[in-house]
């Protein structure tokens, strides 16, 4: 996705938020904002991918802060909050006529755990307050049946994870994918380095993803979504061999929508107008959209 004008205030709001998470020093916070604005003013180009620009702006913010993971506490708490909801998710699956679809909805509801932006969460605990009603909304855009048809024929599926907290529900989704088609091999892909509230190899290992997937890979670098110019060879190879890519969240859409990889199923909450407009679907819905 190309950067949109509304991405600018959103990106700067996130930079301010992460500076506030990292330090109470007003001088450092001011320096972060100034440096981020300088980089953004140089890089802003409506023909450039939003994820590419955001990556470079976040990089200078982290360097100015001298902090390689300003969201660390929020990420840990997000995983704990999500884990507290696992029993409820398991109840919903038992009650469901389509447990795979239900697990998809729950994993998308986890995508609401996004901090420092409009449409995101004020705090990890907020998920408990909105969980039931957001699950009850179901899917505002639903290509699940098409995705299921592909899954029936797939041998290899890749799941690109997004936020912490959300990844707890992704583990349940992976279990249901295996039940739906026991013959598929699942590769989980997490961020190569800590960036915003996204999940890394540390989260995948702590949540014991090896119990439900066949392989865990990382994107290999500091990047919003995926930096396709810096893909590790193992990830390049897996992408060539996969039958279906499942992308969680908006950052993965921003990056992958600039590529020719297909088929891709995007599972996300449309939290901003830029994403909703780019995907041609409504704002503030749970969505499963397949691009073949």
Write a structural description:
With 292 residues, the protein is an alpha/beta fold. The chain has 2 domains: 7-65, Helicase, Ruva Protein, domain 3, CATH 1.10.8; 72-291, Uncharacterised protein PF01937, DUF89, domain 3 (Rossmann fold), CATH 3.40.50.10880. The chain has helices at 7-22, 26-43, 50-65, 72-84, 86-95, 99-110, 126-136, 144-153, 166-180, 201-206, 233-241, 250-256, 273-279, and strands spanning 141-142, 156-160, 185-190, 215-218, 244-248, 264-269, 286-291. Helix 12 (250-256) links the parallel strand 5 (244-248) and strand 6 (264-269).
- Using the coordinates shown, work out and report the CATH topology of the largest domain: Rossmann fold
**How far is the N terminus from the C terminus?**
17 Å
Largest sheet: 7 strands, mixed
CATH H level of the largest domain: which superfamily?
A: Uncharacterised protein PF01937, DUF89, domain 3
Q: Output the number of helix runs.
A: 13
Present the secondary structure layout.
Elements (H helix, E strand, L loop, with lengths): L6 H16 L3 H18 L6 H16 L6 H13 L1 H10 L3 H12 L15 H11 L4 E2 L1 H10 L2 E5 L5 H15 L4 E6 L10 H6 L8 E4 L14 H9 L2 E5 L1 H7 L7 E6 L3 H7 L6 E6 L1
Helix pairs in contact: 1-2, 1-3, 2-3, 4-9, 5-6, 6-7, 6-9
